[in-house]
Structures are given as C-alpha cells and as structure tokens.
Specification:
Elements: H1 16-24, H2 43-46, H3 71-82, H4 86-103, E1 122-123, E2 138-139
Antiparallel strand pairs: 1-2
Length: about 140
C-alpha cells in the first residue's frame, strides 16, 4: 500500500527493542531515524475525535510518533469536545476529516478484522467495535 501511494519503501525488520529505539528518534533515516512507521488502532479508539490518537496535530505533544503539527485539526477537535449537540459534532467531525486529508497526520494503509468466536449461550456481545469488548456480556439463563 505504501508503494501504491508513491512512497519509496526500505522495509526494515528488527526486534522490538530496536524498533522502539528507532521509533523515538527524530533523526533522518540516513542517521538511524525513520520517515514512516506502521501501527494499528482499534475501531473503538479511532471511532471518535476524542480518542483517535492518530488524528492529532499537536506536534511535540502528539500521543503517537511522527509528531504531526496541525493547529487547524487541534482547534476543530477542541470545538468538537466542547460541542453541546450531536448535529454540531457531526459537522465538526466532517471538517476534521477534510482537514486530515490536507494535513495528513497519518496515512491509513488498510483495515484488519480479528476473527472472534463466542459461545452460543452468551448474549449482549458487542461486535461493532473492531475488536472484542468484554462488557455487556451475559450468559443466557
């Protein structure tokens, strides 16, 4: 997907310790840094501007690596958090998405579905989250 998006890819395989060290580096790739990092978010995390850690633009304070800076996304997110009704939140969420296509704080490479099976005597299983959630589940009487 990265090549299809026009990126030059130098795939690096490394152990977790080396990956964590390199990911924290702000040096250019030629000096042991990086310019793209592949990770994953669950449906629950990415379903809202309040929790989507990849959709932030607060630079050095960004919760994920890459330190994207987008004052516009941050301002819209603050408005979304302060919005008092769903219609306003929907409008602001659309504006956040539009700005994300301009500033590109992250590049989605695809979607992953985790196969999950549940016993037939369970009810209340929440399945629209992108991953298993373990609340609301009850055993049928």
């Amino acid at each position: 997907m990265m090549r299809r998006a026009g990126m030059n890819v130098d795939y690096q395989v490394m152990d977790l310790a080396a990956s964590l060290q390199r990911r924290a580096s702000k040096k250019p790739p030629s000096e042991g840094g990086w310019s793209a990092y592949v990770g994953a978010l669950t449906g629950v995390v990415s379903s809202s501007p309040a929790t989507n850690s990849a959709l932030r633009g607060n630079g050095e304070e960004a919760p994920l690596w890459g330190w994207p800076s987008s004052p516009k996304i941050e301002a819209l997110r603050e408005e979304w958090l302060d919005a008092s009704d769903l219609a306003t939140q929907k409008k602001l969420a659309a504006e956040i998405q539009e700005q994300a296509f301009i500033d590109v704080p992250y590049y989605p490479l695809g979607i992953n579905f985790t196969p999950t099976a549940f016993r037939s005597d369970l009810t209340g299983v929440l399945t629209a989250s992108g991953g298993p959630l373990f609340w609301n589940v009850r055993r049928q009487a």
